[in-house]
Amino acid sequence: MKRLALISVPYLWLLALFLVPFLIVLKISLSDTALSIPPYTPTLDLSEGWAGVKEWWAGLDMENFWWLTSDDLYWKAYLSSLKIAIISTILTLLVGYPIAYGMSRAPDEWRPTLMMLIILPFWTSFLIRVYSWKAILSNEGLLNQLLMNLGIIQEPLIILNTNVAVYIGIVYTYLPFMVLPIYSALERLDESLLEAAEDLGCSRFTAFWLVTFPLSKQGIIAGSFLVFIPAMGEFVIPALLGGSKTLMIGKVLWEEFFSNRDWPVASAVAVILLLLLIIPIVLFQRNEEKQREAEK
Amino acid sequence: MRRLSWFNAISLTLGFAFLYIPMLILITYSFNAGKLVTVWSGFSTKWYGELFRNEAFLDAAWVTLKVAVMSSTIATVLGTMAAYVMVRAGRFPGRTLFSGMIYAPLVMPEVITGLSLLLLFISIGLDRGVLTIVLAHTTFSMCFVSVVVSSRLVTFDQSLEEAALDLGCTGFEAFRLVTLPIIMPAVVSGWLLAFTLSLDDLVIASFTSGPSSTTLPIKIFSAVRLGVSPEINALSTIMIGLVTIGVIGASLTSKRSIAKRQKDEQGAIQ
């Protein structure tokens, strides 16, 4: 009896506030836009009994999804989000791996401090961290001032409001998500394996490539998912650092909802984004459960 | 004792410079006298004064704090229960769906979570305000809490609980007297995580807030969308300062409690 209560409280909460809202999104994505409150039809009218349900069901159609396929704005936005998410995940890996590696090779007494230095930005406001790049990357910004004073460039570089600024923003804000899983994989690495590889005639680089790198694969996979998945639906970074040409699906959804007030199309955009993310989300969950099993 | 090779030393230095220089610049320019944020024109604290006279910011800060305290507290209770169910309840019908619902919000794009919750609140006729933001924040942050707490529950020795039950504790007493004190550090860090997630959230709050319940991130976002403002730099500096004090304080406390526990354990052995 008590067990039932323990299970049902969080279960019902998640059903009501996580699953049901999705079903509503799905339903509205199949409805039509209308000039009414709420701004879509049909609405389910239970007071008419079974006939009401039937009428509601008959009013649902795939029209919004056809609309999404016919207007290439949406296609371009999905593809460009995918491109931006993939490129920035790779960049984050390239920046994050050496940091994680350096941390795992650092003297033991430094490690808690290094760890704290990685975690601290993670606790600091995401919005503020994205915003801090605005003053650096703008045309009169500090980066351009520095490069012009050093005589490296004559004309200011245009970085803010381009995709490059979005890449920098994503790498910067999601770096801890990449570093931490890789670090925890590298930290567990048994160093005698490397010594053995070197004794057997591997150069340091081959030893890294054949031993260290494969053993940190779990961490790389976890870190890449943790960067890729949120980057795909990112809104704040393209809104603050990207330009009008930066197409990302999170921004399109936001504008569809807040500026165009087109709820059915916004819902359809959300449904497709979710379908695209289901594969990486399921893979991520498998990876996590596998690791959890391994730890037991 | 290991020494750092030059390669590792350089990658650590560059990496941490990349992480910290933007924030240091932000903090420096919050003390700039001029209105332009990219030109230094002397030291001043006037933007802090402006900030504290700005009623709209103060109101938003108060709403944000209320939402964060309420949502993180409820999320900690629900998340701890969920973790307990995941680790201890064994098999039950719908377990796969349950674990899916715990993990999915961790990786769900915020725009989707926000949109779906808003549509729920509208369809059940709930007016948007502090309550709806609290419900929304509780839902996604309880999942983070449950992941943090369940990782602690997995590693702890279940025979301690069994011993308590054998000695006549009821299930709840065993939880309160044995399990809870042991998993407490994880519960506390879960609460802190939920609290900062709530303080920081822009997207979900934008969807679920009403006109009378603007939170600080919403205010900051609308202020910085078009450009940089010295007042926001001052506000950011205060927030970064509070987080730094909090994180360093928490890590020192946990270090001390670990040291104390090790000492106690050694004392018990002798």
Automatic annotation (TrEMBL), chain A:
Q: Which CDD domains match?
A: TM_PBP2
Keyword annotations: Cell membrane, Membrane, Transmembrane, Transmembrane helix, Transport
Recorded topology in the membrane: Multi-pass membrane protein
The ABC transmembrane type-1 domain covers which part of the protein?
Answer: 78-284
The organism encoding this protein is Aliiroseovarius zhejiangensis
UniProt entry tagged with the keyword Transmembrane helix: yes
Membrane spanning stretches: 12-30, 77-101, 113-132, 164-186, 220-243, 263-284
**Family membership:** Belongs to the binding-protein-dependent transport system permease family. CysTW subfamily.
What protein is this chain from? Answer: Putrescine/spermidine ABC transporter permease
Family annotation (InterPro entries): MetI-like (IPR000515), MetI-like_sf (IPR035906)
**Location in the cell:** Cell membrane
For this protein, the record's SUPFAM superfamilies field holds: MetI-like
Automatic annotation (TrEMBL), chain B:
Its annotated compartments are: Cell membrane
Record membrane topology: Multi-pass membrane protein
Q: Which domain of life is it from?
A: Bacteria
Can you give the residue ranges of the ABC transmembrane type-1 domain? Answer: 61-253
Q: Does the keyword Nuclease apply?
A: no
- Family note: Belongs to the binding-protein-dependent transport system permease family. CysTW subfamily.
What is the name of this protein? Answer: Ornithine carbamoyltransferase
State the species of origin.
Answer: Aliiroseovarius zhejiangensis
